Amino acid sequence: MANGLAHTGRLTETEYNQWKLTNACLDGAYTSPGIYKEMPDVGLTSWYIEDSAPHLLDSMSFYTDLLDRYRVPWREVRSSYPGEVVYRDDVQVVVQPFTYQADWAL
Questions:
Q1: In what order do the strands lie in the sheet with 83-88?
Q2: Which of 25, 53, 94, 103 could disulfide-link to 87, CB 3.0 to 4.6 Å?
Q3: What's the pTM?
Q4: Closest Cα partner for 20 from 4, 6, 1?
C-alpha cells in the first residue's frame, strides 16, 4: 500500500526519499526469494518470522505511520500457520495462502 502511494506520486519529497531508504534497508536485510519467479501469479505472500525478525518487524512502523497519515486502512495480521510454506529462510516464510474450498472442505 505504501508502494502504491509512492508509485502514484502522492508522497511528499521527504516521504518519498524515506520510503526509498526504508525499502533499500529492508531489501538489504534479507534475501528476496526466487520462488516468486518460479511461481508467478499464484498469490504467494511473505511473512516475517516473529522470533527471528524483530528488527524487520520494527521497521514496519514507518509504513504504518505513512498509511495512517494518508488515511489508508490497514491491519496487522499474525498467524502461526498462514498457508502452505513454499520457501523458508531464517527471517521469513513465503506461503501459498489457504483457500476455503481447497483447504477447508467441510
A1: 45-48, 92-97, 83-88
A2: 94
A3: 0.75
A4: 6
Nearest to 46 by CA among 97, 9, 12: 97
Domain containing 56 equals 2-103
Contact status, residue 88 vs residue 33, Cβ threshold 8 Å: no
Count the domains in the chain: 1
Q: DSSP string covering 2-19, please?
A: HHHHHHTT-S-HHHHHHH
Can you give the pLDDT of all 106 residues of the chain as single tens digits? 999 999 999 999 999 999 999 999 888 887 788 888 888 878 898 898 989 888 888 889 999 999 999 999 999 888 988 999 999 998 899 999 887 766 665 5
